[in-house]
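Q&A log
Question type: sequence-to-structure
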Amino acid sequence: MTDRIYPPTERSTIKRRAKRAAYDREVVHAILDEGLVGHVGFVADGQPFVIPMAYARIDETLYLHGAAASRLLRTLRAGADVCLSVTLLDGLVLARSAFHHSMNYRSVVVFGQASLVEDESAKREALRALTEHLTPGRWEVARQPSSAELAGTMVLALPIAEASAKIRTGGPVDDEDDYALPVWAGVVPLKLTMEAPVPDSQLAEGVSFTGLVRP
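Response status: OK
Response body:
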């Protein structure tokens, strides 16, 4: 069913290693929800830029935020085309030959145009989603944004309408003649982990860390 996939377009169709492509909404959503940083590509005054940014997903929309004076956000607000990419690195693939070394990964690329979120309740909901995506549980315990903070923050909505995922799994693929070489080959798994929290030097007495629970 077409509603279960993002229809491939000229921009979103994976051409190189097409067997690794996925257009399923569930796959795209899962990668976006696990990722923490999106790289946002755009062109301003004829100059290309790629900026790492926090993001969050609500249904079929990605939300970005930043200072109202931000060149990136002002450019996107004006209707510039944008490309947002997210990559999860799952492992280093070590082959018997240097040429066939690779990485296992899950990635998503979203194309489109962003629009300004002006309604205050929608803006707050987007900021809540951004906070909860990065630091689950913090929105309810931290001070809520003030009116001045809201006024100084621009929130943009990027529809997830033109998107694709690309995924590599498994071990190395060597040339047949190389399999007998006395060189270790395989996968070194990688994952992002949280370490022990470091309290702020001005933390009020008696305040303990309540933890973050990522789904």
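Response note: The first strand starts at residue 21 and ends at 22.
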